[in-house]
Each structure stands twice: as structure tokens, then as C-alpha cells.
Design a protein that fits this description.
Distance between the termini: 27 Å
Strand content: under 5%
Number of helices: 9
Low-confidence stretches: none
Largest sheet: none
Helix content: 55-70%
Mean pLDDT: 84
Number of domains: 1
Length: about 180
């Protein structure tokens, strides 16, 4: 499995050659950030799944920080955050809000749809969106943390299971090849 994923990863020389990443060379070139094994891959998926629900453009930054702190595969953690996109973010936030409502009954009101884009302009719409988010309050905040934790745990366990199934399949294949040679 490592060989299939490794072809998408940049090498150490590409990091050293990039002038924007040079100040972080000591941190970013740590071997465990680029090592791909079942532990680092599962941890990277968990970090990416957790940070994927961070609002706004900070998802990849959060995943990178988690990868550096927990010493898991950095590119895979960044790649995993892409499960949230303009098509999936609203349903995920609705689920998070429902989880928050379930954990904190009576803390919020019924879910109100986000404000529509109007003729007033971008700044008015952004302010209305911020007010709408603030109105959701504690149920959404708690729901996001709980949903992110659930998704991170599920991603971790699924990656460990997928890696294990791949290894068992590879072992059996090698065993069949050895038996055929005899």
C-alpha cells in the first residue's frame, strides 16, 4: 500500500528547494512526517478528519499542525481534509448541529437556514452569515467537536483495518506464490 501512495508524495529535496518552506526545514523534514506506515497513515487520516471540520480556510493549517505535533504523515493529513467541500460542508454542519442539540437539549432553537445571497453585496452577506453562525451557538460548537472526534476515530479505525486487510491479502498472495514454486 505504501508504494501506491508514495508516488504522490514530494521528496525531501523538493522541500529543501522551496524558499517558502526553508525556514521550517528542521520541522518539516522530520522523518516521521514523511514515513508511511500503518501507524502514521491512520494517525494522519484521524488528524485530517478532525481538522476537516474547522471552519474556513484553516483546515489544512490545522491538519499540518496536528501532523507535526503527533508526528504522523503530513501529506496524507492534508489530503484527508478534502472530504469537506462546498457540497458536503452544509450536511456535515447540520449533523453537527443535531448532535449538539441532542447533547444539549433546550440549548438552542430550531435550525434556521443560512442567509441567502442578496443584492446588498458581499460584505452584507458575510455579516449576515456571521450573525447566523453566532445564533447557532453552543449546540453547533459542541456538535462540531463531537462530530470531528467521531469522524477522526472512524477514519483511524478504518485506515488501520484497510491496511491490515491489505497486508493479509499480500501475505496470502506471497504464500500462494511460494507454494506454486515448490
Amino acid at each position: 500500500m505504501r508504494h501506491h501512495i508514495r508516488k504522490f508524495l514530494p521528496d525531501h529535496e523538493a522541500i529543501r528547494a522551496n524558499r517558502w518552506l526553508r525556514p521550517f526545514e528542521n520541522t518539516l523534514l522530520h522523518p516521521r512526517l514523511w514515513d508511511l506506515n500503518r501507524h502514521s497513515a491512520a494517525g494522519a487520516v484521524a488528524a485530517g478528519m478532525f481538522c476537516g471540520l474547522i471552519p474556513g480556510p484553516l483546515q489544512m493549517l490545522g491538519a499540518a499542525i496536528c501532523a507535526v505535533v503527533f508526528r504522523v504523515n503530513l501529506p496524507l493529513a492534508l489530503l484527508t481534509t478534502f472530504y469537506t467541500n462546498p457540497f458536503t460542508i452544509v450536511p456535515l454542519y447540520l449533523v453537527a448541529y443535531a448532535i449538539g442539540q441532542w447533547v444539549l437539549p433546550g440549548a438552542g432553537q430550531r435550525f434556521v437556514p443560512p442567509p441567502e445571497w442578496g443584492d446588498e453585496g458581499f460584505h452584507v452577506w458575510v455579516q449576515a452569515l456571521i450573525d447566523w453562525m453566532a445564533g447557532l451557538g453552543a449546540p453547533l460548537a459542541l456538535g462540531l467537536v463531537l462530530l470531528a472526534s467521531i469522524l477522526a476515530l472512524a477514519g483511524y479505525l478504518q485506515m488501520r483495518l484497510a491496511w491490515r486487510l491489505y497486508l493479509v491479502r499480500a501475505w496470502r498472495h506471497r504464500s500462494r506464490l511460494r507454494a506454486a514454486r515448490r
